[in-house]
C-alpha cells in the first residue's frame, strides 16, 4: 500500500505542460485503466469484508453503512459497490475484465443491477447457463459503447420473464421541486423510457430552434432555458387547466413605491409560490404582463381592487410581431411566440404603449435588457444592441465592406423591404428611401 501511495504521489508531481497532446491522451487512457483496477480491488475487498462481517469491528451492521459513515461514500455509491461485489462472484469473466482494467465499475453495475439474486434464481429454475452470457457481456463491455451493454443486459432480463405483466410506466414517474431561501428551485425527475423521450423531444426542439451566434451557454443551461420556455409557451397559450376558476399564471406582488422606484430593490416582491424576487425583476415581468392595483388599508386589508389593465393590447402585439419577426437582440432569432413585448421606455416612466415604443425580446434577452443592455431602433428601421459598457454588439464585417445587395435592407413603414445602396459621398451602406 505504501508503494501505491508513492506511485500516486509521483504522478501528482508530474508537470502536465511538459507532455505532448498524444502523451496526455495516453496518460488519460492509462489512468482510466488503473482507476478500473483500483475500483475492482475495492469491490473485491468490500465483498470479503461483507462475508467476514468485518464492519462489526467498528460496531456497524453492514459494509454499506461502514462505507457511508467511515469512507463518506454517497448511499447510492455504497450500494453499488456492495451490489457489484455480490454479483461478480457469479460472473468470473466480467470479474477478470474488471480486475485487468478493461471493464469499468459502471459497466459492472449494469449487470449487477439487472441480474440480481432473484434473476439468477429464475435462470437456475429455467436451466439457463449464465456462463455464455458472462463471456458475451464481458466482450461487449470491453469493445462496445456503454449503451450497447445496457441493451444486451436488459434483453436478458426481459427474456427471463417474457410473459410477465407489462408494468405501468406512470408508477415509476417522480418529480420533486425544492425551493431555496433565495427563491431559486432545484428539481429532480425520474421518468420511464417513453415519458423521458417525450420530455427530451420537447426540450430538444426548443434548444435546436434557438442557437444564436455567439451563444456561450453550456448544454445544461440551454436545457434549463428550454424548459422555462416550454412552460412559458404553455402558460401563454391559455390551454392549461384552470386553478380554482383562474387560468394558471405567474403572480408577483410588489409595493407601489418599489414599483415606481428605479432601484433594484432586492427581495421587494413576492411570487405566488412564495419566492422573493427583486423589484427590478418584477418590473421586467410587468413589461408584458397584466397589472392589477390593490389599495391596502392600515390594518393590512384590501380597501379597493382596481380594474386589471393589460399593458400590451393584442392589436399592438400583432403589429410588433409583424414588424420585428423575431427577438430583436443582435444575433438572436428566437421566434415571436417565445418573446415578450418590451417597452423601450418603461410605461411606468412615461413610455407609451405603442408600436414605436415596443420591441420583441425573448426571455433571456429581455432579462439582459433589464440588466444594463440596451436595444434601439435607428431611423433606418434597423435594431441595434449595446452592452452595459456602451459598446455596440455587431455581427459580421463592418457595413462599409459589405457589397451592395449582400443583405436585405430594413423594413419601411409601409412594410416593404428596402434595398441597400452605397452613399457616393461617404461610401457607407445606406437604405433606399
Automatic annotation (TrEMBL):
InterPro entries assigned to the protein according to its UniProt record, in alphabetical order: DUF222, HNH_nuc
Keyword tags: Endonuclease, Hydrolase, Nuclease
Region called Disordered, residue ranges: 406-433
Keyword Repressor: no
One protein family per Pfam: DUF222
Domain HNH nuclease: 315-367
Molecular-function GO term, any one: endonuclease activity
Protein name as annotated: Endonuclease
